Amino acid sequence: MKTKLFLTVIILSLVSVLAFAGDPVKETEFKVFGNCGMCKTRIEKTLKIPEVKLAKWDKKSKMLKLAYLPGKISVDSLQQLLASVGHDTEKFKAADSVYANLPPCCLYRGGDSSH
Ligand SMILES: [Cu+2]
What we know:
- By secondary structure, this protein is an alpha+beta fold.
- The chain has helices at residues 2-21, 37-46, 75-84, 96-100, and strands at 26-31, 52-57, 63-68.
- Strand 2 and strand 3 form a beta hairpin.
- Copper (II) ion (CU) is lined by residues 34-36, 38-39, 105-106.
């Protein structure tokens, strides 16, 4: 009786440890609009969070390569995070007020500015 309870406890704790250790890392990539090396730094710095294991943005292709924990954060949240620091994605646009505060070299929208 006692042994059975003990075994159950062991099994349950093993299961939870495995579930934790097995938190899967998923790789993905999506487009993030930006211009220069400063954009790269900003984009990659913004994603220095525990839920993201790797973030690499390519200036030429504008593609962001990501390794993240889908159990902890969604791609939408990550894209919203980037929009919140001024970088459009195909799904989320940065607020004009945030975009306007970027350094001139980072203004990637070109042509559609109102000044
Ligand atoms: Cu820039």
